[in-house]
Write a structure and sequence with these properties.
alpha+beta; 5 strands; globular
């Protein structure tokens, strides 16, 4: 099954406008924004991601619906494996504040 996974844009790369840091259920990865030339996302926007590429911008409500759908289909583990297996650079040195961790836990609880 082809999975499109929602992620929230955290920041756009300063040296490459086609690269962004995205948060997917607490996992942060770099993704490619090259397919969204006509509707560039900005930090705070939600996007649907497939194999490391942002495919389209979506609303936060649609992102939550997509995560719920993946859970209902039993595909959430596969989705998270896809995120972790993009082959793009994983962000290990990003400092995450306690507030962001609390936020992620609240958001994850809303999705469950």
């Amino acid at each position: 099954m082809c999975l499109a996974i929602p992620g929230k844009i955290v920041e756009i790369s300063g040296d490459n406008a086609e690269s962004a840091l995205v948060d997917v259920a607490g996992v942060r990865r770099k993704i490619d924004l090259g397919l969204l030339q006509d509707d560039r996302p900005v930090p705070g926007d939600w996007v649907l991601i497939h194999v490391g590429f942002a495919m389209s911008k979506i609303s936060e409500g649609d992102a939550l619906d997509q995560m719920n759908t993946l859970r209902a289909l039993g595909e959430i583990d596969g989705a998270m494996q896809e995120v972790q297996g993009y082959g793009l650079e994983e962000i290990d040195d990003v400092e995450i504040s306690d507030a962001e961790i609390d936020d992620a836990e609240v958001n994850d609880a809303e999705v469950n």
